[in-house]
Amino acid sequence: MSLNLTTLLEQTRLFLHDSEGARYSTDDLTAAARMALMEINLVSAQGFALAGLDGVDETTLPDSLQHLLVMGAAGYAASARAAAQAEWELAPQKTLPLALWSRNVMEDFRRILCTLYPPETARLHEQRTAAPFVRWEGTLSEEHPDHLA
Predict the structure, then answer these.
(1) Predicted TM-score of the model (pTM)
(2) Which residue from 73, 46, 38 is spatially nearest to 62, judged by alpha carbons?
């Protein structure tokens, strides 16, 4: 089954033990899903999309990454909720259980993501050579011949 925004939100609520939606709003979970997907895209150097998110019609995220997206969305949502609940002025050293849980979820999310997509010089080089800008032909001390100043 292909994941879309509606099913992602349902699965994220289950991950967060909030199936009724009492603690996390749809907008908060959507923002968290967007952040998790952006992180997956950044680390994987891909342009995966999720149907229903930001006007996209088709999910291009592979099935193998769907649970990872749910985990990341849950981690981002719980991190935001923990930050909103913190009473910084009254107890700066107090660590909230939700903050610890969200930190652990985000560490697992990032560890799995980096295991699936380890940093590779070749992949980064491919991105740099495909960049949509003009290559500089001179040295740093020279002005570019097309400079308009």
Answers:
(1) 0.74
(2) 46
- SS3 percent helix, strand, coil of the chain, rounded to 5, is 55, 0, 45
Enter the tokens of residue 6: 């509606």
Q: What is the pLDDT of residue 118?
A: 85
Residue-wise pLDDT for 12-32, tens only, equals 999 999 999 899 999 999 999
Report the b/e string of 90-129 with b at 16+ CB within 10 A. Answer: eeeeeeeebbebbeebbeebeeebeeebeeeeeeeeeeee
> What is residue 51's three-state secondary structure?
strand
| CA torsion through residues 135, 137, 143, 144, sign | negative
The whole-number pLDDT of residue 122 equals 44
> Coil, helix or strand for 71?
helix
Structural contact between residues 57 and 49, judged by C-beta atoms closer than 8 angstroms: no
Spans of the chain, pLDDT less than 50? 121-122, 125, 149
The two counts, helices (H) then strands (E), for the chain are: 5, 0
DSSP label at residue 104:
H
Lookup result for tokens 């799995």? 112
